[in-house]
Design goal:
By secondary structure, the protein is mainly beta. Among the domains are: 1-44 and 51-64, no CATH class; 71-156, Sandwich (Immunoglobulin-like); 178-302, Ferric Hydroxamate Uptake Protein, Chain A, domain 1. Residues 1-41 form the signal peptide.
Length: 1103
């Protein structure tokens, strides 16, 4: 070996502990470069240098190949002109790019970035640095004498092979045959306790409805419509591969109060990496009997390669109700009452003076308080007497709503090396509600670690713990709701007892005294009761998973996962003995304790093989055992000696305690095969068989399957000439799934109950409460999906899809004759269909300049239709809807409002006679009920955009819903036209019919009216079209390497954000800004807390 060869080999230094394959290839490349003759070595005249830092051992390796034919003089000259330049390479989110190639353009001089994205390189003082990394666009930077430079790489959507999370694993987006959409953690940042509210408007085909502003409350999720009538329409939630329960069965209060806690709120959004929504059968059917409503895959954060990094996140928010009902002032309400009574007395022949005295007395009686400082404030001519003034004008909405504070603190540490990675976090979340007693607190922690135990074994564990506390508004129905009563209390009712001059009356201790006298709710005060009563819950959740992944053979792995999910939920409710609900019981306390231990044991065998270059085969087979052990205990007591004694032992009379324990088991066998030919033709099939304990003995098992195919058209030779086309993929799938969600665990069995309702002689007996149905089986669903994905000019992208989802064997309460002793029996009898189109579009509008602009848009148009319904139409009275064949299950059913009779001011409704002729009637009971249209929109979606410039980022998110109907039940309560004696009224009531105002839609106001003009009708049915400005966020990311803290502080970001800023309604909507089409009455309940507007400020620090 000659001297030049020896010198060349000296450059081929390879880190001694790198894998043998890499060492061998590196030495081979060096020797190849050396052995080439000079004329053949031209391609090697650029030096390829790679310098990597081994974070575990603190050593470095150098891999290089260079032209050995240069002269010593040229090398010396190059060294004399060089200077050291250092810097950091990050992506568009500010995260370090590890292993990026940094090369002095036109030379062989280069290096790679370390685990923090940093580099240091000796270069010519006026050189250009060329930076490249797989999945990102190349960048070139002119040094111009600088010694420090920081570079941001932009994602190359053309070359990046995106990985999508799927059932029991991951898949490359390019070969995926199903329909799925992913949202990463950067788009889940909001001040909400739960991540679900952040998804609104971000995923085509997904509707997220939240009609309650109670901190920690639940949202309604619908993926491609509603496929069930009586079972749940909520999707299956899967956290890091483990199915979890997200229903509200733990909450007793959920039966009375729409503001109950969401189990999803136990998950800290700051620990979530991404959320993937599986929408079609090909994507979701591997979850079998639980996938009919779609699947939401939640992936939490894990450790990353690199030295330990600590991140701190905090945010503070202020929330307030953006819009309230415009209620009458105290003077307006008094005069409305006074005038109606005055006219009645005058029509009865009384003198103006007598009528005025009687009207003043009536108005004060209706309010139960005189809001004026004189006894007869209005004279016989209807004028205010001299000296009369209002002393009480309480804005009850202003009193009940407050500005609420949200605090969120999170810290995590993560890192890893070639063998082990880890992620540990802790969080504290504290959100006040906009009503007096509402709040939600959460303490959370997470730990994840995975390691390569051996070359053939990988092991890991993921543990999440949370403890949450929720204070809700007082339950017991609308009559006990502080919010509902705040709307119905006239402004003339004071919060505190006052004298005739409007001054508060103090007690013996000098404190203000609450006023409990009002015209609508006996012995109640919306401000005082939340302070005297309790409605609290606590939740402890421990969710864990441990896995072992064995490499049995090249391409063959066996993975076993054990995942326990333990939930302990408790609720406490107390009604004081003096005011509100409590006096009927002389004080009452209730306790509810629930535990649910769910464990999942999953075993999968995975095989991957690429053969003959063009063929790629992925196969998976698995077995899963799932079990839930649920227990619940209820107890209560009444007759307490003093207030604020909450313990049951303090009550003299114990209520009958109750307990319940149930068990549910699901055993599953499943498999999937995926085949790709020539990287362009992709096929997949899956099969799952589930055995469930909740169905009849004849139908314990159900089998579900799917098949899908996709064609990457842009890979065809005839498409190669279209260089502007980056992707054109056609997808097609069909499959089946089932629904067992939300069912009572013993629905198929005959049940008996021992109760005092069943008397045999002088003793309690046992009665039959539920008919058995051994034939009860799964709700089944079949879905067809066709879609196309496209991307062109490496700038524009999108997808379009059509689906048809047919659901049959739906659980239906079939009515029985009274002679059977039962009103109904649960049977599989109904069928519904959901079908529609989805469109997703996006563009990097500005990308190749310091100013960057991205925009994304999605649209969904979905219809649902009841295809089969045994028996007559079923009226769902508490929702003002009807189930009828050929119509939506959200079809409104009520009389048609025909306006006001201009002659006498009477209300009018449409009446259809026996011959089908349409007329009108002023008698509500004679009005004809008709189908009025569906609550679901014609189409809905979202629009998001992001602008960034040199560290500044501005993002905006709109969510919209077009078409559909919504019923404003609250507005109906405050437009009663005198039907509710002392209840407050909306200002619109001032437009009521009079002899001088005949062209109006508000009937004549009559005290103690009985014409039911406020009855359910289209008078209060509105077009639900709305556009919501969901979020605006402005942030600034400090430049990396900022002195003097750069050695400690690796990154910093400050931001300000606003949520639920503004909602535009097409119709003259009077209510609060958020509506829930899936709730009772199309608005949710009369007790729902409005969703507030929130202004948030915060910062992120990385060390």
């Amino acid at each position: 070996m000659d001297d030049s060869m020896k010198k060349a080999l000296g450059e081929c230094v390879v880190f001694r502990k790198t894998p043998r394959l890499i060492r061998g290839m590196s030495l081979l490349l060096c020797l190849l470069a050396i052995s080439l003759p000079e004329v053949q070595a031209d391609p090697w005249k650029q030096k390829r240098s790679m310098e990597t830092e081994n974070t575990a051992l603190g050593e470095k390796s150098v891999l290089s190949s260079m032209n050995m034919h240069g002269t010593a003089r040229s090398v010396a000259k190059e060294i004399q002109q060089q200077k050291t330049v250092s810097g950091r390479i990050v992506d568009e989110q500010g995260d370090p790019v590890i292993g990026a190639n940094v090369v002095e353009k036109g030379t062989t001089n280069g290096t790679v970035t370390d685990a923090d994205g940093r580099f240091s390189l000796s270069v010519a003082s006026n050189c250009v640095l060329h930076v490249s990394y797989i999945g990102y666009l190349d960048e070139e930077v002119q040094i111009s004498g600088r010694t420090s430079v920081n570079i941001t790489l932009r994602e190359d959507t053309k070359s990046l092979e995106e990985v999508v999370v799927v059932a029991y694993g991951t898949s490359k987006r390019s070969v995926f045959t199903g329909s799925a959409a992913s949202v990463d953690h950067t788009k889940l940042q909001s001040p909400n306790a739960s991540f679900d509210k952040s998804l609104q408007g971000q995923v085509a085909g997904l509707q997220v409805m939240s009609a309650s502003g109670q901190p920690g409350s639940t949202s309604s999720f619908r993926i491609r419509g509603s496929g069930s009538l009586n079972a749940s329409n909520e999707p299956l939630y899967v956290v890091d591969g483990v199915p979890i329960s997200a229903n509200t069965k733990y909450s007793k209060l959920a039966e009375d109060n729409s503001n109950s806690s969401s189990i999803l709120a136990t998950l800290n959004p700051q620990d979530i990496e991404s959320v993937t929504v599986l929408k079609d059968a090909s994507a979701a059917s591997l979850y079998g009997s639980r996938a009919a409503n779609g699947v939401v895959l939640i992936t939490t954060k894990n450790g990353k390669l690199g030295k330990a990094s600590v991140s701190f996140h905090t945010q503070f928010g202020l929330a307030s109700v953006p819009k309230a009902y415009d209620m009458m002032s105290s003077a307006e309400f008094y005069r409305m009452k006074w005038l109606s009574h005055y006219e009645q007395k005058r029509e009865a022949g009384e003198s103006p003076e007598k009528a005025a005295v009687s009207a003043n007395a009536f108005a004060q009686g209706a309010i139960t308080f005189n809001p004026y400082n004189v006894d007869q404030p209005i004279d016989a001519n209807g004028n205010l007497v001299n000296g009369a003034r209002i002393i009480v004008d309480t804005d009850w909405q202003d009193e009940i709503f407050k500005t609420a504070l949200t605090q969120d603190y999170n810290v995590n540490v993560h890192g890893g090396n070639e063998k082990t990675n880890y992620f540990f976090s802790a969080g504290y979340y504290d959100q006040e509600g906009v009503t007096p007693s509402a709040l939600y607190k959460r303490y959370s922690g997470k730990g994840t670690i995975s390691t390569d135990v051996a070359s053939w074994l990988k092991a890991g564990m993921n543990i999440t713990f949370s403890h949450s506390i929720q204070h809700s508004e007082v339950g017991g129905g609308a009559g006990a709701s502080p919010l509902y009563n705040a709307l119905l209390f006239p402004n003339g009712v004071p919060v505190y007892l006052t004298d005739r001059d409007g001054n508060p009356i103090l007690d013996s201790s000098g404190n203000k005294q609450y006023n409990f006298t009002n015209p609508t709710s006996l012995d109640f005060n919306p401000i005082a009761i939340p302070q005297m009563d309790l409605n609290r819950s606590k939740n402890y959740r421990f969710l864990a998973s441990a896995f072992l992944d064995f490499k049995l053979y090249e391409g063959l792995n066996f993975k076993t996962v054990f995942a326990p999910d333990y939930i302990h939920y408790s609720e406490s409710r107390y009604w004081n003995k003096e005011h509100g609900n409590g006096p009927a019981y002389n004080g009452r306390a209730d306790r509810y304790h629930t535990t649910d231990l769910v464990y999942t044991f999953t075993n999968t065998l995975n095989y991957t093989n690429r053969f003959a270059e063009r063929h790629l085969l992925n196969a998976m087979a698995g077995f899963e055992y799932w079990q839930s052990d649920y227990e619940r205990v209820e107890a209560g007591a009444t007759t307490f000696p003093l207030n604020n004694m909450y313990e049951l032992s303090s009550g003299a009379s114990a209520l009958s305690p109750q307990s319940k324990s149930t068990k549910e088991t699901l055993i599953s066998y499943f498999g999937r095969v995926e085949y790709t030919y020539s990287d362009r033709y992709n096929f997949s099939v899956s099969l799952r068989s589930d055995g469930s304990s909740i169905f009849g003995v004849d139908n314990k098992w159900g089998t579900f399957w799917s098949a899908g195919a996709s064609w990457r058209i842009e890979q065809e030779d005839l498409m190669k000439s279209f260089e502007w086309l980056d992707q054109l993929k056609l997808r097609l799938s069909y499959g089946t799934s089932g629904n067992n969600q939300g069912l009572d665990r013993y629905q198929s069995l005959g049940l008996w109950d021992s109760s005092s309702d069943y008397i045999y002689g002088t003793s309690s007996g046992t009665g039959h409460t539920q008919l058995a149905n051994p034939h009860l089986k799964w709700e089944k669903q079949a879905m067809f999906n066709v879609g196309v994905d496209f991307r062109f000019l490496n700038r524009f992208y999108g997808s379009a899809e059509y689906f048809y989802k047919s659901s049959k064997d739906l659980l239906y309460k079939y009515p029985l004759a009274a002679s059977n002793g039962f009103e109904s029996i649960m049977m599989n009898m109904a069928k519904v269909a959901n079908y529609g189109v989805e469109l997703t579009l996006g563009a990097h509008v500005l990308r190749d300049s310091p100013l960057k602009w991205n925009i994304d848009f999605n649209l969904s148009a979905i219809r649902d239709e009841i295809k089969d319904l045994v028996g007559d139409d079923q009226i769902i009275s508490n929702t003002k809807k009807i189930w009828s064949k050929g119509y939506s299950q959200y079809e409104f059913y009520m009389p048609t409002w025909a306006g006001v009779n201009p002659v006498n001011g009477d209300p009018q409704w449409v009446k259809i006679d026996a011959s089908g002729n349409r007329g009108t009637t002023n008698v509500y009971s004679q009005a004809t009920y008709e189908k009025q249209g569906r609550a679901t929109p014609d189409f809905y979606g979202g629009l998001s955009t992001n602008l960034s410039y040199r560290g500044f980022d501005l993002s905006v998110l709109f969510a919209y819903s077009w078409g559909g109907l919504v019923y404003d039940a609250l507005y109906a309560q405050i437009m009663h036209d005198g039907n509710q004696a002392g209840a407050q009224m909306h200002k619109d009531e001032l437009m009521a019919w009079t002899s001088s105002n005949t062209n109006t839609n508000v009937p004549k106001y009559v005290n103690n009216n009985t014409n039911a003009s406020d009855g359910i009708s289209t008078r209060f049915l509105y077009d639900a079209t709305n556009i919501k400005l969901k979020n605006v966020t402005l942030s600034y990311t400090l430049p990396s390497g900022l002195k003097p803290v750069s050695d400690v502080l690796k990154g910093a970001r400050i931001f300000v954000s606003a949520d639920n800023l503004f909602t535009w309604f097409k119709d003259d909507w009077k209510g609060y800004s958020d509506i829930d089409i899936f709730g009772i009455g199309g608005y949710n309940t009369l007790t729902a807390i409005p969703v507030p507007t929130t202004l948030t400020m915060g910062f992120n620090l990385t060390f």
